[in-house]
Amino acid sequence: MDFNLTEEHIMIRDAAKDFAQTELLPGVIERDNKQEFPQELVKKMGDLGFMGIMVDPKYGGSGMDTISYILIMEELSKIDASASVIVSVNNSLVCYGIENYGNQAQKDKYLPKLASGDMVGAFCLSEPEAGSDATSQATTAIDKGDHYIINGTKNWITSGGRAGIYLVIAQTDRDKGHKGINAFIVEKGTEGFHIGPKEDKLGIRGSDTHTLQFNDVKVPKENRIGDDGFGFKFAMKTLSGGRIGIAAQALGIASGAYELALKYSKERKAFGTEICNHQAIAFKIADMYTDIEAARMLVMKAAWDKDQGNNYDMSSAMAKLYASKVAMEHTVEAVQIHGGNGFVKEYHVERLMRDAKITQIYEGTSEIQKIVISRGVIKG
Is the pTM of this model over 0.90? Predict the structure, then answer.
C-alpha cells in the first residue's frame, strides 16, 4: 500500500490549486450572487486539460487517470463548486459515456470539442417523476426506422442552458421495462427541443440548471448510444463514475471549509487568546481534519478501483455517501467557528455550506447510495 502521490499527481494537483486561487477565487462571490455561468473560465479550464481529463489524447484529451481527476476536482471545489460540477458532468458523464460506449463517429465528432472546452455536455436522466427511480422514464423515444421521435421533460439538468450536446435517456419499449430504455445524443438547436427557465437554487448558483422539453424531437438512429435497450445500463455504468466526481467535489467543499476555519481560528481572539486555543474550537478542528482524511481515503480508493479495472460500484457509492455527509456536517461547523462572520458572504464559508447540500442529492441521493452499498454487502 502506497499512500504517496506521484510527482506527476502532485504537479497536477498544484496546477489545479493555482488555477482555483488565481482564476476562480476573485469573482466567485459575484458569480454566486448573480447566478453567473463561468463561460470564460470553462474555456480556460479546457485549455488546461480539465474538461477532458481522462479522454484519450487522440481525441484532444489529457489522457490522465482517475486519481488525477479527483485531485483536480478537490482543488476546484475548495473555491468554486459551481465550476467543478461543470467539470464533473463533462468528464464523468458525457466524455466518459461517449468514449466508452459511443461509436467511432460519435467519438470523432464530439470528444475533441468537449475535451477542449469549446463545448460542454449535459446528462439528461432526471424527470419530474423519475429522479431516484430511474427505471420510470416518462420521456419516450419512438422508433421510426431511420430515426427516433423523442417527447418528454427532463429537469435539474446541469449546464442545461449552455451545453452543446445532451445525452438523453428515454423509454422506447415500456413493456420491456429497464431493457426498453435507450440513450441518445441530442444537439442543441434541434427542432422541438426547448430549454426552460433557469432554476434559482440554494447552492452551486453559478452552475446553469434548467428543465428541458422535448416536443417531437427527431433524432437520427446513428445518435443512439449502444445497442437497442442499452440505455439504462449505460446510465447506471456512467453514474458510478460520476459518483466519484461528486465525492471529490464534496471532499473539496469540506476541505475548503476546513482550511478557512483553521486559518480564522488562528487569527480570531476571544477571552485573551486565539480561539484555536480553546478546547471547544480545537476539538471541532480535530473532528473536521479526521473526517476529511477518512473521506479522502474512500474517494482515493474508489478512484484507484476504477483505474485498476475493478468493480467500483460499491466503492464509489461509499465515497459519495461519506464525503457528502462530511461536507454537510463540517461546512456547518466552519460557519459556527466563524461565528457571526460565518453568516457573511465575504468569508466564503456560508457559500460552501449551501453548496455542500447538493452533494447529498444529485447523481444519486444518499439513500440511493445506501441501497447500492447494502445490496453489494448482502450479495457478498
Answer: yes
